Amino acid sequence: MTMKVKEVADLVGISVRTLHHYDEIGLLTPEETTESGYRLYSEGNIETLQQILFFKELGFPLKQIKEIINSPSFDRNEALQMHRKMLLEKRKRLDQMIQTVEKTIQHMKGEIQMTNKEKFEGFDFSHNPYEQEARERWGNQAVEKANKKLADMSKEERSNFEETFNSIYRKLAEIRHMAPESKEAQVGIQEWYEFLNKMGHYSLDAFKGLGQMYVDDERFTKNIDQFGEGLAQFMCKAMAVFAEKNKA
Predict the structure, then answer these.
(1) pLDDT for 17 beyond 90
(2) Strand bridging mode 32-33 / 39-41
(3) Where are the CATH 1.10.1660.10 domain residues in the chain?
(4) Core-most of 40, 147, 157, 235, by most CB within 10 Å?
(5) Which long-range contacts (CB under 8 A, 24 or more apart) does 8-15 make?
(6) % of residues, the chain, pLDDT over 70
(7) Between residues 87 and 145, which one has the greater pLDDT?
(8) Where does residue 228 fall: left (phi above 0), alpha (psi -120 to 50 degrees), or beta otherwise?
(9) d(Cα 23, Cα 205) in Å, to the nearest integer?
């Protein structure tokens, strides 16, 4: 059974224009388009749309969502399990906040006394660990794509790539003793970010996660520190600063 675009829009609670846009960019192509131009969506399209909205909730850009759901390694069940963990964590926080609201009402009526600590129970401004896990899981698609692109390069292209790669690292090594948030450090890290995105697609969170890997994985640390001792640690901090600054 197929559904028309207006029916899908009403079912999901999004606009018809949004569905048209998803079709235009190749993110969600309807199962069939009639001679009259009507888009008809299948059950499979509906399932794909659910996944798209799941990743939008995580903050992924549409371009990256397209790469993820079209990847041969994408596992829909894995994505749903991740979504479930996130919702359970969110429900736990909401239950705590509801209790805080109820206790605050009683406190205002003079029925109970609340400590300052109790007034903020349920508030959690730290990063959702499951959200970070999801970002790291699917952010790895960028690494896989970059490796494939590198493998497909000609000898000359690979030589130019290595020359640019080494040049960026040498420049970063020269300023590794500066503060990671300094202008010089951020200019150098931006060059590294732009270089990586020529090879694949790195979200800001994936870029930050990659920097963390530089210090968590001793193999990365050893290779990077060949350009200068402490470079891996410097890049990790500078990449984190860059990611957070550019989210604003």
Answers:
(1) yes
(2) antiparallel
(3) 3-57
(4) 235
(5) 8/41, 8/45, 8/46, 8/49, 11/46, 12/49, 12/53, 14/53
(6) 88
(7) 87
(8) left
(9) 27
The CATH architecture annotation of domain 3-57 reads Orthogonal Bundle (1.10)
Mean pLDDT over all residues of the chain? 84
Burial state string for 118-156 with b = 16 or more CB within 10 A and e = fewer than 16:
eeeebeeeeebebbeebbbebbebbbebbeeeeeeeeee
Delimit the CATH 1.10.490.50 region(s) of the chain.
153-247
**Concatenated DSSP letters of 46-113:** HHHHHHHHHHHHTT--HHHHHHHHTSTT--HHHHHHHHHHHHHHHHHHHHHHHHHHHHHHHHHTTSS-
Q: How far apart, in whole angstroms, are the C-alpha atoms of residue 131 and residue 184? A: 31
Instruction: Determine the pLDDT at residue 68.
Output: 80
Residue 248: per-residue pLDDT: 58
Q: Which of 239, 20, 18, 30 lies closest to 139 in space, CA to CA?
A: 239
Which amino acid, residue 3?
A: M
Q: How confident is the model over 158-211, as pLDDT tens digits?
A: 788 888 988 999 999 999 999 999 999 999 999 999 998 887 777 888 888 888
What is the model's pLDDT at position 131? Answer: 55
pTM for the full predicted model = 0.47
